[in-house]
């Protein structure tokens, strides 16, 4: 158990360090706005420098915003999520202030695409181990549970409002490039972090009762057993139908194979679900 926790802490720290590197080496170099609380912090930081000739540390803006989000959501946050998020936010803010900029490219489009990819990987890495990179990720975790919906498209919409403010203050070219950054980041999150995605399983097996129990124990989701007939053999078959979280599919299939190694399993990506669906923490 302790090895898992140590591994998770290392991954959260790595995520925070990569996020700080990304801010300094991609975002700041070409003047992008990453959205979320990091985007707000950079917006305030650049406004202070441009309009008031005041230098403000990134962490002095990021920390209060994230503390506010944690206070608003702490009743819905688990202890592990809270600790990992505080570690991520604290380390990212500190490293952003002290790591020197290492320009990778001065091409705005390249920085938008690859910076967005790195940003999405960092967010996904923290979320996969049970934490977050702070900001809107905190609210996404909390209200994703409450609404039973994928929160990332809503997050993208909120980020576009932040970029609107950036465009009004500093010009539209970097704001529009930042939308590319946000889109790339969101697509990577959808690819790597599957908690708020669903998959439909169609399983043909004679061991349907044991498979149903496996699904219940592993995912806390129920299933429906349908009667069918195999057209080739003309034998009666049982079809188990269930919808589970996308992140549970691989481990669930392994457990099902332990019950029936010959089971026929069809996995279908569920693009939309209307009904009560509970996500397992």
From TrEMBL:
Membrane-spanning segments: 9-31, 51-74, 81-102, 108-130, 151-170
InterPro entries xrefs: DUF2179, N-reg_PII/ATP_PRibTrfase_C, UPF0750_membrane, YitT
Pfam families in the record: DUF2179 (PF10035), YitT_membrane (PF02588)
Locations listed in the record: Cell membrane
Keywords: Cell membrane, Membrane, Transmembrane, Transmembrane helix
Membrane topology, from the record: Multi-pass membrane protein
Domain of life according to the entry: Bacteria
Domain DUF2179: 221-275
A GO term from the CC aspect: plasma membrane
Gene3D superfamilies: 3.30.70.120
PANTHER family hit by this protein: UPF0750 MEMBRANE PROTEIN YITT, UPF0750 MEMBRANE PROTEIN YITT-RELATED
Protein name, as recorded: YitT family protein
Organism of origin: Wansuia hejianensis
The organism's taxonomic lineage, starting at the top: Bacteria, Bacillati, Bacillota, Clostridia, Lachnospirales
